[in-house]
Amino acid sequence: MEELSMERIYKEIAPKFAIEGTLTEAVPYGSGHINDTVRLTCVLEDGGQKRYILQRMNDDIFRQPAELMENVMNVTSFLRKKIIERGGDPDRETLNVIPTVDGRNYLEDENGDFWRTYIFIENATSFDMVRTPDDFYNSAVSFGNFQLLLQDYPAATLHETIPNFHNTVSRFADFKKAVEEDVCGRAKDVQEEIRFVLEREADTHVICDALAKGEIPLRVTHNDTKLNNIMIDNETGKGICVIDLDTVMPGSALYDYGDSIRFGASTGAEDEKNLELVNCDMGLFEIYTKGYVEGCGGSLTEKEIRMLPMGAKLMTLECGMRFLADYLQGDVYFKIHRPEHNLDRARTQFKLVADMEKKWDEMAKIVEKYL
Fold this sequence. Notes:
Kinase-like_dom_sf; globular; 3-stranded antiparallel beta sheet; alpha+beta; Aminoglycoside phosphotransferase family protein; Pseudomonas-type_ThrB; single chain; Aminoglycoside_PTrfase; 43% helix
């Protein structure tokens, strides 16, 4: 995609959306790596102002923008009704898509780029890093509440915006293919890491098999449950809105829970070279588990709650597999900032998996409290 031109946004893109007032400012916004995001400020006739988020969608990653936006529209419309039913504020508690002037939910420009606009959520902030355990707890409650609100949504009707995203059986097959092809001749130097993954092949089937057999329900899943995808109210410090719905797809609640534990309960950075610093913090594991189960408000089954530790382990193993496969393929997917960056990332994930296995009984006991 070409560089963003603010002049073009003023003259050609923003005027094609049904925004109120006169556009006075357009500035790059946020820290996202996938889409290009701009905050628009408009002055209204009464002198007040209204702000919007304008995004250019990354169609290299999301190949079917129309299907993606259909998911977003259907899920946010459903959420809006649920929020109104329980007396909430639908303008702040879910994303609100602003249509184009001709009534579409996205714009395709003459360059073939895809754009969308949302109402900007005022007096709220998203944080890239967990500052306190309360942040982690609040994010857990928010993602759990997202699950609760969508428990009646027909998940199977959603499009898969990235096919097989958390299909660990498929991810394992991709990993084995990367090992066999060994296009960069790197496999000989990472035999220990390769063996670590291959020894856990049976684990990769656990959630997929449970879904296939109907032992756990198919649910609407967010699939990118990072803290910065929650808007935190500036006054109350509580999570008010789950954002970035591009990867909303059918899946298991264990995916969302597990990915949060993977990054949020780790004591080290995702690319930490000193593996002695990398462990799964049981205090943070318990804080998130408590918040997530509370947020889900009784919508999780007993089987799902008992399987939460497996969700954490499998999402961590999957991520490690993907980092190592990318290293073997020449670092073609994840951006790297140094040689062996993806290998370092894979090793941190595998260290976390090994630590979870050591603490398995402790994790099971913590989860048991919330049945």
